[in-house]
Amino acid sequence: MSCLFFAALFSTYLSISGIEVGKFPSIIHSSASQRSLEESIDWSKYPKKTVVATGYTAGYESTGKNPGHPEFGITYSGVKVKRDLFSTVAADLNVFPIGTILFIPGYGYGVVADKGGAINGNEVDLYYDTVDEVYNEWGKRTLDVYIIEMGNGTLTENRLTELNENEAMQVFRQQFNRTEQK
């Protein structure tokens, strides 16, 4: 019954937002609230690309900017960095344009919002709040990412908020949103 409820909410959201049904993964298990996002979706339906994934922060060590800098925490697309259900990531814009939505196993959804100074080719840089999280939770990995939607070169705060507030996906949000857990 809860699966039907979430499916109804999701289809209502899609019809109101104008997003095509095929753009986002569908939940395939009825006990989604007890499963991780990775276990609840059939990722084989999406194209994948092997990448080298590293982590970055908004801090000086990654961006050369301190908290007092006017562009601190602001990505190339203009949105603020965010670790959430749909987190901001950096990529080579020739491979993954701004706005591309990826699913990164072990990390979650990443929305390309930044170009990263040292990112070239099949590399992505995943946003984390702290340097400790970058090293202790991620490090450097070679893995397959799933391409949910190719970007069109733009991303807005409204679009990022819309993705993160998708009602059908809220059952998974606590897995990725550290600020709600604190």
Provide a descriptive summary of the structure in words:
By secondary structure, this protein is an alpha/beta fold. The two termini are 31 Å apart. The protein has seven helices and six strands; from the N terminus they run ααβαββββαβααα. The longest helix is centred in the N-terminal third of the chain and has 16 residues.
Strand percentage lies at 15-25%
Total helical segments: 7
Structural category is alpha/beta
Specify the biggest β-sheet: 6 strands, mixed, barrel
State the helicity in percent bands: 25-40%
Strand order of the largest sheet: 1-5-2-4-3-6
Oligomeric form of this entry? single chain
Distance between the termini: 31 Å
Helix/strand order: HHEHEEEEHEHHH
Q: Round the Cα radius of gyration to an integer and report it.
A: 16 Å
What is the overall shape? globular
- Runs in which pLDDT lies below 50 for 5 or more consecutive residues are 1-22, 26-33
Instruction: Provide the residue-averaged pLDDT.
Output: 82
What is the total tally of β strands?
6
Topology summary:
Blueprint: H1 2-17, H2 37-40, E1 48-56, H3 60-63, E2 86-91, E3 101-104, E4 108-114, E5 123-127, H4 131-138, E6 141-149, H5 157-164, H6 170-173, H7 178-181
Parallel strand pairs: 1-5, 2-4
Antiparallel strand pairs: 1-6, 2-5, 3-4, 3-6
